[in-house]
Design goal:
50% strand; four-stranded mixed sheet; 0% helix; mainly beta; three-stranded mixed sheet; 169 residues
Length: 169
C-alpha cells in the first residue's frame, strides 16, 4: 500500500501566494483555495504554469503535482492618513501605505467616555467600521462626541489586593 500525495510548487516574484489549507503535500481530490497578493507597489495580473486566467482568489482541486506562477503589474503607492482627538483609528491591513486597489477596513476604537459621531475627509457617515478601496492618497478624520460618562471608582474590600479594570476603573 502506497499513499499517493501531490505537491504544489510556486513562483511568485513581487508577491506571494496564500494557500488554504497550506500543507507540504495534498491527497488526491483536495480542494485548495489560492490567492495571489502583490508586494507593496504591485498588483496581481495573471496565473501561469499549470493555471491560466486572472481569477483571484480561486479554488482548485489537486489531482497531480502542480507548478503555479503568479505575475504582477506595477501600481502606484498611496498613503492613508488618519486623525482623531479621542480614541484611535485602526487600519486593516495595518501600515498606512498601500498599493492602488487594496481594500482597507477603517475602524474607530473609542476612548472611555467618547463615541464616534461621524467620519470626515475621504470617509463619510457614521458607520463603524467601513471599508475603502485605496485609489489615491486618503485623509480620514474621526469626529467624536463626549458621551458624558464619568470615570467612577469603586472600592470593595474583600480581603484581596487592588484591582484595576481594562477601562481604568
Amino acid at each position: 500500500f502506497k499513499l499517493i500525495t501531490y505537491t504544489i510548487q510556486v513562483t511568485s516574484d513581487n508577491g506571494s501566494i496564500i494557500f488554504d489549507p497550506d500543507l507540504p503535500w495534498y491527497l488526491p481530490g483536495t480542494e485548495v483555495s489560492i490567492k495571489a497578493v502583490g508586494d507593496l507597489g504591485y498588483a496581481f495580473d495573471a496565473w501561469g504554469g499549470d493555471l491560466s486566467g486572472n481569477e483571484n482568489p480561486m479554488v482548485l482541486t489537486v489531482d497531480n503535482d502542480l507548478h503555479l506562477s503568479a505575475s504582477y503589474i506595477t501600481v502606484p503607492i498611496y498613503n492613508v492618513i488618519t486623525t482623531v482627538d479621542h480614541g484611535s483609528i485602526s487600519l486593516d491591513p495595518p501600515g498606512g501605505e498601500y498599493s492602488e486597489g487594496v481594500e482597507v477596513m477603517v475602524s474607530y476604537v473609542k476612548d472611555f467616555g467618547y463615541q464616534l459621531d461621524e467620519w470626515s475627509g475621504d470617509l463619510s457617515g457614521s458607520e463603524n467600521p467601513q471599508t475603502i478601496i485605496v485609489d489615491a492618497d486618503k485623509d480620514i478624520t474621526a469626529l467624536t462626541d463626549f458621551t458624558g460618562d464619568a470615570i467612577t471608582s469603586y472600592a470593595i474590600n474583600c480581603g484581596g489586593g487592588a484591582y484595576e479594570a481594562s477601562d481604568g476603573t
